[in-house]
Design goal:
Mean pLDDT: 83
Number of helices: 3
Strand content: under 5%
Number of strands: 0
Helix content: 25-40%
Distance between the termini: 59 Å
Radius of gyration: 20 Å
Structural class: mainly alpha
Shape: elongated
């Protein structure tokens, strides 16, 4: 609700969001990013203010890929001496 409260349009819009897949935290983050993006498409004047306050900034962190010859992205197979 932060971007809606920030832009003072809570009484003007109704928001219905559906998020599928991922976990609870990921879905919450996706919806929190999607609301300001949708608001900025309808009300262009709010885009600079929303961007300045970090509502339109995407979290660029991604899952690290699994490397060949390893058990996972960072985990290795157990070393055996003999």
């Amino acid at each position: 609700m932060e971007p809606v409260k920030f832009s003072n349009i809570a009484d003007q819009i109704d928001v219905v969001a559906t998020a599928k897949a991922g976990g609870v935290g990921g879905q919450a983050g996706a919806v929190a990013w999607a609301w300001p993006a949708a608001i900025s498409k309808f009300i262009r004047e709010l885009r600079p203010a929303l961007r300045k306050n970090g509502f339109l900034t995407r979290d660029s962190r991604m899952k690290e890929r699994k490397k060949y010859g390893q058990k996972g992205a960072r985990k290795r197979f157990q070393f055996t001496k003999r």
